[in-house]
UniProtKB/TrEMBL annotation:
Domain Quinolinate phosphoribosyl transferase N-terminal: start-end pairs: 30-109
Superkingdom: Bacteria
Protein name: nicotinate-nucleotide diphosphorylase (carboxylating)
Gene Ontology MF annotations: nicotinate-nucleotide diphosphorylase (carboxylating) activity
Residue intervals of the Quinolinate phosphoribosyl transferase C-terminal domain: 111-276
Gene Ontology biological-process annotations: NAD+ biosynthetic process; quinolinate catabolic process
Functional pathway: Cofactor biosynthesis; NAD(+) biosynthesis; nicotinate D-ribonucleotide from quinolinate: step 1/1
Free-text function comment from the UniProt entry: Involved in the catabolism of quinolinic acid (QA).
Matches recorded under PANTHER family: NICOTINATE-NUCLEOTIDE PYROPHOSPHORYLASE [CARBOXYLATING] (PTHR32179)
E.C. no: 2.4.2.19
Family, per entry: Belongs to the NadC/ModD family.
Gene Ontology cellular-component terms listed: cytoplasm
Amino acid sequence: MKVNRFMIRPLIEMGLREELSSGDTTGGFLVGDDPIQTANIYAKGKGIVCGMLFADETIRTIEPEARIEYLVEDGDEVEPGTVLMRVQARASTFFVIERSALDWLQQMSGIATKTRRYRDLIKHTKVRITDTRKGWPGLRMVQKYAVRVGGAHNHIFNLANCVLVKDNHIKIAGSITEAVKILRASAQHTFKFEVECETLEMVDEALKAGVEIIMFDNMDLEEMREGLKLVNGRAMTEASGGINETTIVPIAELGVDVISIGDLTHTVKALDISLDVKDIKPSAHRTISRLKQLSN
Ligand SMILES: O=P(O)(O)OC[C@H]1O[C@H](OP(=O)(O)OP(=O)(O)O)[C@H](O)[C@@H]1O
């Protein structure tokens, strides 16, 4: 699933509003007749690019006539110095959009870069990596898009996507068996059922209840190996709980179907990306000196 301008516009406006709720007190006074300038958005680190449409929409929201040339696309690997985008727009536009456009790119590329690293670690297996719902509230769509760009898959988007029975549901219902019985009677027939199992006894109970997906939740390698024997192809298996770059390979090699990882979206190092205005037009300088004269 791709993102489109309609989906992202409210987020873009939210970002710009943080920046520009009552004008630009620095750039706004410097631009004078506000000539068209050219700027490059370029990588300062190595990673996977994500968020080109977000940067584009940020620029176009302020200056719809801006000319934007893409030199890479989401999912491309970049090196320090790679130009992602060349933009022709008013000087005043660059001052307003710079932080916001770059932050979308930096944060989303950070997620895509980390995701690609995880994916590459286990590409010798058939295991599917997914995200979780862990991340920034309000930005789930963005984070999950970046995970897909990085080469992994999405787990549920929200509570309406499947019946996911967690520890607290089991406590409230009394048992896995009881929870599944109640939910089978009320949930849509189209839904799959997944149960988080912390022990092999829970795996056994969930299998007897006939669920489609068993999560090995916070289990060690040996328990997961036993869990897989128990399941024996009767359900999909998902490993989860604190899995990181140092633990993922042996888990994937066990042969679970899915590994879900909160780290993809809850602990992200941004990719370093910058914006540089080129070819400064002399009229901009003239305006600055005129301002200086006026203030003398
Ligand atoms: O890769 P992680 O960051 O560990 O995320 C995955 C874990 O999160 C979920 O549990 P839950 O929502 O109960 O969170 P918690 O187990 O981390 O408290 C899921 O059942 C995994 O245990």
